[in-house]
Amino acid sequence: MRRLGAIVLTVLLAAGLAAPARGADPRWVFYTKDRTYYTSPWFQGAHRIMVPFGCTAAPYYSPDPRCRDHHGFHHGMDIAMPCGTPLYAAVRVRVVPNDSLGPAYGDNPVLLRNRKKHFDLVIGHTKKVYVREGDMVAKGTMFARANDRGAPDGCHLHFEERSVGGGLSTAGWPRALLRLTPRDRS
């Protein structure tokens, strides 16, 4: 009987039907086939991508002419992580006004700028932000925590890379800036 239980558990785990992993949010919905867990100097731990950059079947986006099958376009990358996950500055950045960001980013988004490296980084759905507009944040400094504010599908962070001072139309693929690295399975 014990052996049968182990077999059933193995099948459920393989099918993704067993209880969620510790710290997993039962509201998470993944709009990608990528099941890899990634690390980044921008956040603690290893986490999966929920909604990739570009055309997506996620229902929150209006159909976009760049996408087929009436899919919408996602200007950033959503990464699933437990609420409270710490965020760190991967490089030296300045906190700039977030007035231009709408409610889709939650009620406390962070807008970071690095003129030398030519980017703005929008981070949506933060819980607690420990820095203020105008602050220069040193590399390695914890500046915020993840949350689910403004996020219908559970705790995650939205990362959006833009040109310095640019709006949504300047958004580009943030993967290189985030330095996503597949978690070592050894």
Q: Key features?
A:
186 residues, mainly beta, 10% helix, seven-stranded antiparallel β-sheet, Glucose Permease (Domain IIA)
Characterization of this structure:
The protein has 186 residues and is mainly beta. It has one domain: Glucose Permease (Domain IIA) (Distorted Sandwich). Helices cover 10% and strands 32% of the residues. The chain has two helices and 15 strands. It has a seven-stranded antiparallel beta sheet with strand order 3-6-14-10-9-8-12. It is globular, with a radius of gyration of 18 Å. 30% of the residues are buried.
Q: What do we call the CATH homologous superfamily?
A: Glucose Permease (Domain IIA)
Structural class: mainly beta
Q: Per CATH, which architecture?
A: Distorted Sandwich
Strand residue percentage: 25-35%
Q: Which whole number gives the mean pLDDT?
A: 86
Terminal Cα span:
32 Å
Q: What is the third-level CATH name, the topology? A: Glucose Permease (Domain IIA)
Helix content: under 10%
Q: How many helices? A: 2
Element order: H for helix, E for strand: HEEEEEEEEEEEEEEHE
Domains (count): 1
**Structure summary, number of beta strands:** 15
- Using the coordinates above, name the CATH class: Mainly Beta
Using only C-alpha atoms, the radius of gyration works out to 18 Å
**Major sheet details:** 7 strands, antiparallel
Q: Order of strands across the biggest sheet?
A: 3-6-14-10-9-8-12
Shape: globular
Oligomer: single chain
Low-confidence region ranges: 1-21
Task: Describe this structure in a few short sentences.
This protein is mainly β and 186 residues long. It contains 2 helices and 15 strands.
